[in-house]
Amino acid sequence: MKSSVITGILAWEALDSRGNPTVGCEVRLSSGAAGAALAPAGASTGRHEARELRDGDSRYDGRGAASAVRNVAEVLSPAIKGLPAAGQPAIDDALRAADGTPDLSRLGANAIIAVSLAAQIAAAADAGLPLWRYALPPGSAVELPMPMVNILSGGAHAGRAVDIQDILVMPLGARDFRQAIEWVDRVRRETAKELRSRGLPTALVADEGGYGPVLPTNQAGLEIVTVAIDHAGLAPVQDVGIALDIAASQFFDPSTGRYLLAAEDRSITASEWAAELSEWADRYPIVSIEDPMAEDDWDGWAEISGIAGAAMQIVGDDLFTTNIARLDRGITLGVANSILVKPNQIGTVTDARNALDAAQAAGYGTILSARSGETEDSWLADLAVAWHAGQIKVGSLARSERTAKWNRLLRLQAELDDQASFAGRQSIPIFARCSARDVAR
C-alpha cells in the first residue's frame, strides 16, 4: 500500500495554560488522516534553548505568535508537503533546513515543534494506532513512567515566593501508576492541611498547579512536605521521596559568580550552595535535585555532582537543554547523572528522542517533561511510554493541562492492565545501582 504523504497544514494562534499565545497546527495527509498539536512554552527558559518567535507588537503585550503561525503556513508547510508521513526524521530535517539557524530563531521553535509533533500524531492516526503504540519500537515492552509531581512552587512559577522553583514528590514504593498517583494525592492533601495549620493560604495555585505560599525560608517548604509524607502514612524514601527543581540560573549573578537567595537576603558561593544542598539531603528525604547550579556554572555542577551524585539523582535541565552537544560535555566532565527532556526545548520530536537515547546509552536517568506554559494535549504521556523515558514530570494534580497527561496514563494503566509494567524506583540512577535499604534515611 502506498505511503500517505503530507498534503498541507492548518495553523492558528492558540492559548497556553498561562493565557499566552502559542502555535497550534494540524498536519493533513493524503489518506484523510490528520494530527494536531499545540506548542508548550516555558517560564524559566534556559539561555541555550531553541528560540520561540514572538511578535513584539501591541497584541498580547508583545507575546503574540501570529508571525510564527504565518511561518507555518508560508514556509514550513511547503517545506514538508509531499513527504511521507511515516518518515519523522526526514520531516524534522526539512523543518530545520527551512529555518536554517541552530536555535530555530528565524521561523520560531514554537512553530517548528508544533508542526513536528502534529506530523508524528498524524502518522499514528494514519497507521490506525495510538501515539504510544506507533512510536514504540517493535518488540519493546510497555512500561508506564514514574511520576514526578509538583507540590509546592516558588521561583518563576510562583512570583518568587521562595527562591527554589519547585518541591515535588516521587512515589518510589508504589506498585503501579494508579497507586503512585493516589499516594501523591495523599501527600498533596496533607500538605494543604499543614499549610493551613501554619496560617498559609491554599486557595490559589502556581503555574504548574502546586501551592505557592510565601514561606519564611527555602527549607520551610521541605519541612512542610516531609511532615505531609509522614501524615499521609507513607515512609520517607521507602514509599515517597522529595525531588527539587532549584532552577538556580534564576538567582545566579554571573558578574560575581554567587547565588543570591533573595527570600533569605543571602549571597553565597557555589561551594557554599553545594554544601547547603548536601545538608538538606542529609536532613530531608531528597532523592532528586534538578538544576542545582546555573546553566553555565560547570565548576559548580562538577562540585555538586561530586558531593551528591552517588546519593541522589542530579538532573540537568537548563544545563543540557535537551541538546546532545551539551549532554556530551556533561558526560565527559562527569556532571549530573540525569537529563530532563523537553521536546520544545530542542525544537523537534527527532532531536528530543535522540537526546533521550544518548542519555540512556550513557547510563543517565531520563525524565520527559512538560512546561509551565502547557496545553490540554496529552501527547507527552504517550511519548513517555513509547520512549521508555522512565520518569515523567508534568506538574501537580491540579489544572486540566496537567491532569490531561496524568489521566492519559491512568487510562493506559486501565487499558493495558498487566501488559504494562511500572518503571518505579529503578528509573532513578541511584536506585538502579543499589537497593532501597542502601539509600534509605
Helix percent reads 25-40%
How many E strands?
A: 16
Strand content: 15-25%
Shape: globular
- Tally of domains: 2
Rounded to the nearest angstrom, the radius of gyration is 21 Å
Strand arrangement across the biggest beta sheet? 5-6-7-11-12-13-14-15
**Number of helical segments?**
15
Largest β sheet strand count, sense and barrel closure: 8 strands, mixed, barrel
The end-to-end span amounts to 59 Å
CATH class of the largest domain: Alpha Beta
According to CATH, the homologous superfamily of the largest domain is Enolase-like C-terminal domain
The secondary structure category is alpha/beta
CATH topology of the largest domain: TIM Barrel
CATH architecture of the largest domain: Alpha-Beta Barrel
Show unreliable segments.
Answer: none
> Mean of residue pLDDT?
94
Q: What does this 3D model show about the protein?
A:
Helices cover 39% and strands 18% of the residues. It folds into two domains: 6-128, Enolase-like, domain 1 (2-Layer Sandwich); 142-439, Enolase-like C-terminal domain (TIM Barrel, Alpha-Beta Barrel), CATH 3.20.20.120. It is an alpha/beta fold. It has 15 helices and 16 strands. It is globular. A hairpin with a 5-residue loop joins strand 1 (6-15) and strand 2 (21-29). Helix 1 (66-80) crosses helix 3 (109-127), helix 2 packs antiparallel against helix 3 (109-127) and helix 12 (379-386) crosses helix 13 (400-416). The strands form four sheets. The protein has an eight-stranded mixed β-barrel, surrounded by seven helices. Strands 1-2-3 form a three-stranded antiparallel sheet. The chain has a three-stranded antiparallel sheet with strand order 8-9-10.
